[in-house]
Amino acid sequence: MTKPTLSLNCTDIEMINDTELNNSTTTFSTSEFIVVYFSMLITLFGLVGNGLVLWFLSFHFKKTPFTVYVLNLAVADFLLLLISKVVFLYIVCGAWKQISVGPSISLLLTVTYYAGLCILTAISVERCLSLTFPFWYRCKRPKYQSGITSAILWVVSILLTYIDIFGCNGTDYKNRELKCTVMIIGTSTLSLLIFSPAMVLSSLILFIKIWTKTWCQHSSKLYIVIVVTVIIFILFTTPPRLLSLLFYFNIIHVKNFFIVYTWSLFCSVINSAANPFVYFFVGSMGKQGVGVSIQGALQKVFKEDSDISQETAQDTEASEIKM
Questions:
Q1: Residue 18 in contact with residue 1, Cβ under 8 Å?
Q2: Spatial CB neighbours of 284, under 8 Å, sequence gap ≥ 6
Q3: N or C: which end of the chain has fewer CB within 10 A?
Q4: Strand ranges (DSSP E) for the chain?
Q5: pLDDT reported for residue 102
Q6: Phi and psi, residue 185, nearest 5°
Q7: Where in the numbering of this chain does the G-protein coupled receptors family 1 profile domain appear (predicted)?
Q8: What share of the chain is helix, strand, coil (3-state, %, to 5)?
Q9: What CATH number has the domain bearing residue 51?
Q10: How many angstroms separate the Cα of 152 from the Cα of each of 92, 124, 129, 136, 183?
Q11: Chain mean pLDDT for the chain
């Protein structure tokens, strides 16, 4: 059996066939097990944090364009953390070889990675547009754009997952066939040279806007959340993507598979678990300090979605009237 069976969070680092697996390093060092146990702890906190975000956004907060995106992002992060928890349990119990019989693990990890990538790109780009074209954002933006866009991005994530996992079989992957090379380079380019630069550029514009005189009088918690979230995403998802390319082109030898695997999944777990804590700590900033409740902190961040759009539209209309 040579069919690849596990792709790490869309890094294309796949399980190899049984013969190669038996000849590779199959034991973990103490440091690697420390990473695994630490990752399990992080996944627990991340599941609780994303669960709270899902609960409050679903039942306690008014739906806004931003919260619809955040709700979808929290779903993607929650699913990724949940599947990662299963993977780590397999490793700790010494049953990691059984992962090869669970293709759903590979599918869900890849779908949730792409969903997070696409949705976070949409968040940063749309908030940038809301500052650049505030009147359009307030008055001309379609009412259900966030929901429709999120649904489309989930479909795109599923299609990219199909390309990632079923684009080439195990034999073609092993032989480095042209179609596999094109697929891996294509998906890596999409992540590293299209989505990631779009997030970085939009976040840079948001960061500049935070510190300009025009916006210093406005509360900037929402923008800080977006910038910090994008920075964390870039820092902890770019290395796994680069590792996938190094692994495919044999720059990283197969005996290092489990080291690459655990550290890559560790990076993905940190990224998915961090977002709820970013929302809380940024929302807690201010006069009330750390005494603010979780719901209060989230409310202070997400409430700005409607407040800022109203203020920007009013400022634009006022400037147009003066002209």
A1: yes
A2: 290, 292, 297
A3: C
A4: none
A5: 55
A6: -65, -40
A7: 49-279
A8: 80, 0, 20
A9: 1.20.1070.10
A10: 37, 17, 19, 22, 22
A11: 76
Distance CA 84, CA 234 (A): 19
125 inside domain: yes
CA 202 vs. chain centroid, Å, equals 16
Q: Over pLDDT 70: what percentage of the chain?
A: 74
Alpha helices, H only, 93-212: 103-132, 134-135, 145-166, 170-174, 178-189, 196-211
Amino acid at the residue 99:
I
The continuous run of DSSP H or E covering 36 comes out as: helix 30-59
Domain of 55?
18-322
Q: What is the pLDDT of residues 231-249, one digit of tens each?
A: 999 999 888 888 778 877 8
> Residue 231: its pLDDT value, please?
92
The answer to whether residue 234 sits within a structural domain is: yes
Q: In whole angstroms, how far apart are CA 42 and each of 36, 84, 297?
A: 10, 10, 21
Single-letter code of the amino acid located at 222: L
Residue 3 lies in a domain: no
Overall domain count for the chain: 1
Residue 205 covered by a domain: yes
Tokens of 15: 């399980």
